[in-house]
Design a protein that fits this description.
single chain, 312 residues, mainly alpha, Helix Hairpins, two-stranded antiparallel sheet, membrane
Length: 312
């Protein structure tokens, strides 16, 4: 079996194994807390119904009103600032879910907008990532020359270390800013930045969603948008290196397999064609009865030796 096929099967097995392990760990960590929260909410719901004499239907209406009013704390979500924020989450595939279109026209436009915008965004971030890697390579070479290193070229490991460091600094700096503006703990801010820049976008924590921030804090809105776009470019640079390494490994295996196949064809053809006897020739002597010529000597091939480099 070809190496690239073995690698693909191994990746599939490893991915499903990783999913199973992740499910088991999340079950152990989150399931008890989920059950406790549900029990507490059920107890509070029963207490409110008894205290204020709500009917079941009235309580559901109040619950729906509370949930639906949550996005409006950020201000008008569909004015230009909020709409630009929404378009950014669509193009970058973050998809917080903090605001969603409610009209048929808005839903249709979102689908067509995403069809064009998502590939455009991926190409843009990949291109920026390549430029970042190129700049990092130049800086690494200059530093190695300044330090009189024997190897002055920038290896893939060097580039991965650089972009990983930049990604970590971006997340750390963004977390400090969001912790200040949103009032989150630093750990929650790091979690939000990581979920955002990896485009997971759960939506459990979303910036710009309180104190009418979309309308009253334009500088904060600008910072949040720049952080998302710049951070995604840095992360794209790191992912571009990892994907490029995997593609390079597959390409090298394919070239090696092709060379082995060509070598096998050459060996097989040489084995089939040797020894080779020339066909008998005839000629007419005097009359009509042909006389065969003397057969030529059999030609034998020189001995074939198989080495690591091919035939000798």
């Amino acid at each position: 079996m070809k190496k690239q096929n073995v690698r693909t099967l191994s990746l599939i097995v490893c991915t499903f194994t990783y999913l199973l392990v992740g499910a088991a760990v999340f079950d152990a960590l989150e399931s008890p807390t989920e059950k406790n929260r549900f029990d507490v909410l059920q107890a509070i719901e029963g207490m409110l119904i008894r205290k204020y004499n709500f009917t079941e239907e009235d309580f559901r209406v109040m619950e729906m009103v509370v949930l639906k009013s949550e996005p409006h704390k950020a201000g008008q979500q569909w004015k230009f600032t909020g709409a630009f924020y929404y378009a950014t989450t669509v193009l970058t595939t973050i998809g917080y879910g903090h605001s969603t279109p409610s009209t048929i026209g808005g839903k249709l436009f979102t689908m067509f907008y995403a069809i064009v915008g998502i590939p455009l965004g991926l190409i843009m971030f990949q291109s920026i990532g390549e430029r970042v890697n190129r700049l990092s390579s130049v800086i690494i070479k200059a530093l190695k020359r300044a330090l009189n290193c024997k190897q002055t070229t920038a290896s893939e490991v060097d580039l991965i270390c650089v972009v990983t460091t930049l990604s970590s600094l971006t997340i750390a700096g963004g977390a400090a800013a969001f912790s200040k503006f949103e009032g989150w703990s630093y750990f929650d801010s790091v979690y939000y930045c990581f979920i955002t820049l990896t485009t997971i976008g759960f939506g459990d924590m979303v910036a710009l969603q309180k104190d009418n921030a979309l309308n009253r804090k334009p500088s904060y809105v600008m910072f949040a948008l720049i952080f998302i776009l710049f951070g995604l470019a840095i992360v794209a640079a790191c992912l571009n290196l990892l994907v490029l390494r995997f593609v390079t490994m597959n390409t090298e295996d394919e070239k090696r397999d092709q060379q082995q196949a060509e070598q096998f064809v050459i060996i097989y053809a040489s084995l089939v064609s040797w020894p080779y006897r020339s066909p008998p020739l005839v000629r007419k002597v005097g009359g009509s009865n042909p006389k065969p010529l003397k057969p030529e000597k059999t030609i034998h091939a020189p001995p074939t030796h198989f080495t690591r480099d091919g035939l000798t």
